[in-house]
Amino acid sequence: MSHSDPASQLDEVRAAALTAGVVVIGAGQAGGRAVEALRAQGFAGAITLIGDEPEYPYERPSLSKEMLHVADQETIAWVQKPEFYVANQIDFRPGTRVVAINRGQRSVQLEGGDVINYGALIIATGARVRRLELPGASQQNSHYIRTLADSRALRERLVAGGRVVVIGAGFIGLEAAAAAVKRGCGVTVIEIGQQPLGRVVPAQIGAYYESLHASHGVKFLFNTGLARFHQLDETVVVETNAGDMIPAEMVIVGIGVLPNAELAIEAGLAVDRGIIVDEYGRTEDKFIFAAGDVARHFNPLFDRHILLESWQNAQNQAIAIAKNLASPVGAAPYAELPWFWSDQYDVNLQMFGLAEPEANCVIRGNPATKSWMLLQLKNNRMICAIGMNSARDLRPARDLITMGAVVKPEELADVSVPMAEILRREKRERALVG
To answer: How far apart are CA 54 and CA 80, in angstroms?
Structure first.
């Protein structure tokens, strides 16, 4: 993707936005934070926020965590109260679908036929769940976790003594399994891979979570595909490829998501498992930006494009785009170290960086306990830190990653050497050199 000088080009887009307004497609975390940041930065032009859900913008992490833990307690975190949108003159259109982007006219067409012009457009359409294509699977017997409506429907059906089958041992599936256990359900997890979390973290982390869930009574079936579902009154029987029949009152499916990039494809924008954007969030059309789960953004820290499905990225990338659109100070690239977390039982996992299959792994602490870390190194530079109940050590680890510090594996493995001390020494040495 080639752009001219970003500052001068953004000046042109900023002027167009002030004249014709900013339209944001998608009213999730990214869309909600984008319009909030535009007004916070003093943007005085028109803002239209269009979302296909009937809800105001909300944060999604609790949908597979706290929301499922208690039957009658709403734990959703709203981006802003409803009155915020009125007070800030944001034209919010919930339950509304955009069917086309007209780049030549700089407009979007809504499902009902209305057309809205824009000076700048932010696509924040997020992702949708990957559906299970299986004989017998239906809306009645297959539950997904992506929207507030999904979680509300699901938590009502998690009843003590019930049998739950979870399809997929990724983070969403495991968080749902932990919630079901907490609600008193018996849980079986079916995973086509060899262990939990196989596509996103090193094997040692997957093995730890297999043991953690097993200690709470969860049964796993690995290397297992599915044949079909059989609906018998209130019971659904999951048939595996091996011919096993597993009865349950509920099936929860967590087999990944797909970016909602169809509007961009139809508008002729570059898409490769996400809308391709540069470090400023710009597509190849300088008047169109993309943020969040739908955007494959260029990250200068990694010198490549990455697609992140995380709360942090959806929020901070949207804010970065809004600041560049609203502020005449100049263009600032979005270059953040990815951060992710998961809560399961009494274990809080946090991860900084991106795990890589070929990297060297250093274990710090004892995985038999509830507090330990896995650190990944490339040429003795830390590239990823994953900690279980290790927030204090993760903060210096994050800084060591962003600094590109060369570290000694044996020192990282030695819990008697504080991570904070390793960081302080690195800073001192750099100060002396600099």
So the answer is: 15
Backbone φ and ψ of 151, nearest 5°: -70, -35
Mean pLDDT of 253-262: 97
What's the domain range around 218?
131-253
Q: CATH number, domain at 165?
A: 3.50.50.60
Q: Residue 434: what pLDDT?
A: 65
Going from the C-alpha of 61 to that of each of 29, 50, 67, the distances in angstroms are 10, 21, 9
Same domain, 115 and 211: no
Is the pLDDT at 2 greater than 70? The verdict is no
Q: In the prediction, which pLDDT does 1 show?
A: 55
The count of domains in the chain is 3
Coarse DSSP helix, strand, coil percentages of the chain, rounded to the nearest 5 percent = 30, 30, 40
Same domain, 277 and 417: no
> Which residues are registered as beta bridge partners of 364?
373
Rounded to 5°, the CA angle 116-7-314 comes to 60
- Token duo for residue 169: 């041992």
The reply to whether 117 and 153 lie within a common domain is: no
Q: What is the mean pLDDT of residues 21-48?
A: 97
Interval 323-333 mean pLDDT: 86
